[in-house]
Write a structure and sequence with these properties.
283 residues; two-stranded antiparallel sheet; 35% helix; elongated
């Protein structure tokens, strides 16, 4: 995305697994590729949680993010300023808190260890809320909500649900949870390396559909314009992504939740969301 492909998107979509239970291999979004090794268990000794008073006294909230995960957190033209959906949301939240924000860029696999060690106060990097993670971390209210979608060519009206994939061919990454979902709905799977290859095969008429995260599709449409593709169906379950904090960050999380509510009410989140995805994905 570009959500750099199906795997990455899936990694953060773990939240879908709850309801897709029998349908989805959890892992953790892009998971199996999913949340990778980062994200669940706290590692080693954890720093205590950050408090609102500490943040206000310091005048800055330090936030961990990848900086390489377009369109959520990336550098314009590869070497420009850090920007992206998550970055803009976090900056708006910091403004509401009356503090500056300092981003610490780190790889996904090390990002929770950095939070545990107190290198930053929060993570802004499309972290899906899962029961496993909730055992170890505090979360804000979600600022991204995304279901899975079945993508087809424009004009394809014989597929309007997951059940309609029975006997049809879909393009899926082997390690993605979407592979499992398509297969369990009776689809014949064409293995692909990621989103780019999937949509190429779909446009060429070599497969009937592909199943993926909705954000992946919206980002693709927002970036490429009219792609000749359309959403035929959505899953009932949604991934909820939020800011992550160390446990016992209660006062800070409460203040961040209020900031997000205010940003939702005044339209800021919808504006940022539309800029990157063409529609409001913040709720």
């Amino acid at each position: 995305m570009n959500l750099s492909g199906q795997n990455r998107a899936t990694r953060r979509s773990l939240g879908l697994a709850a309801t897709l239970a029998a349908l989805v291999l959890t892992a953790s979004a892009c998971g199996s590729v999913t949340s990778g090794s980062a994200g669940s268990a706290a590692t080693g000794e954890q720093e205590k949680g950050s408090t609102l008073a500490e943040i206000q006294e310091a005048g800055v909230i330090t936030v961990g993010t990848e900086g390489t995960y377009r369109p959520f957190t990336f550098h314009e033209n590869g070497s420009g300023d850090l920007t992206g959906y998550d970055v803009e949301v976090m900056r708006a939240v910091a403004d509401e808190l009356g503090v500056d924000v300092k981003f610490e860029e780190t790889q996904w696999d090390a990002i929770f260890a950095g939070l545990d060690a107190g290198r930053f106060d929060a993570i802004a990097n499309q972290v899906s809320i899962t029961d496993e993670r909730k055992a170890d971390y505090d979360f804000s209210t979600p600022y991204t909500v995304s279901p899975g979608v079945v993508v087809v060519r424009d004009g394809e009206d014989s597929i309007s649900s997951l059940a309609d994939l029975d006997g049809r061919t879909t393009a899926q990454s082997l390690t993605s949870n979407w592979y499992e979902l398509a297969e369990q709905n009776g689809a014949k799977i064409q293995n692909v390396e990621g989103w780019a290859q999937a949509v190429t095969l779909l446009k060429q008429g070599r497969v009937d559909a592909t199943v993926n995260d909705k954000l992946t599709f919206l980002d693709y449409e927002n970036t490429e314009g009219d792609t000749g593709l359309a959403i035929a169906a959505e899953t009932e379950d949604e991934a909820h992504n939020a800011l992550a904090f160390r446990k016992d960050s209660d006062s800070l999380v409460k203040a961040v939740d209020q900031a997000l509510a205010d940003l939702q009410a005044d339209g800021t989140l919808a504006k940022i969301s539309s800029k990157y995805f063409g529609e409001d994905v913040s709720r």
